[in-house]
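Hello forum,

I keep getting stuck at the same step: I have a sequence, I want structure tokens, and every attempt I make locally crashes halfway through. Rather than fight my setup again tonight, could one of you with a working pipeline run this one for me? It's a single chain of 223 residues.
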Amino acid sequence: MKTCGLCSSFLGAPLRLTDGVPHPDGIEPAPQGECVQTQSVSRYKTAHRYRRYPMHRILRLLTACALAIVIGCATAAQSGNRTTCALTPLDSMHLASGPLYRECAVDRPARLLTRDVRLDFDPAPATGTPACYRAEIEVIVDTAGVPEAETARLLQATDVDFGEAVLRTVPALRYRPARKDGAAVRQVVQQARALAVVPFSTTVIGARPVPPPPSTPPTNPCR
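Reply #2:
Ran it on my machine without issues. Output:
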């Protein structure tokens, strides 16, 4: 074995020239002519790596990776929102009257103002247990808050007659119009309505029916 004077003076420890022969201490063989240190080479290489990659650079790299992940997630969420807020083919048929938006695409959604519109509906008497009628409609509300009655349609109903009765109330409804970018806009509005029917029993005394004494009010079946 030969001692490499240049490497020895640099590292401050004797080095051996392996000449490609495995060292008995388990150090990997080096190419011919390469200086390796038998005792402190691993510590030197480790320290050398830390000098090349200081901690502030590692933290900067981790911060950049985290920022890229956050931006990617935000972009995916915005893309999902755009897909959800897209107009349906049926909505697109009404674009001739002006721009149209879904609730999730406006800054302030339309809000129902009239809540006392009477339903032209006679439910069947409830016998034994309370009954609940539900219906959901969809209608376009213009920039003045007036429903475009010709666009109203029934989405679902527990009773067809009740659903038709809810549709007949559309011309009497009034809304606070939706707003987007500071201006009133047309919006597709989904409106639900429910009617609870609770059985009521009476006691007949003589020829005049008398209601039963006050008791705990029945539970609303529509809740």
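Residues 120 and 165 are 6 Å apart (CA to CA). If your local run keeps crashing, start a new thread with the error log.
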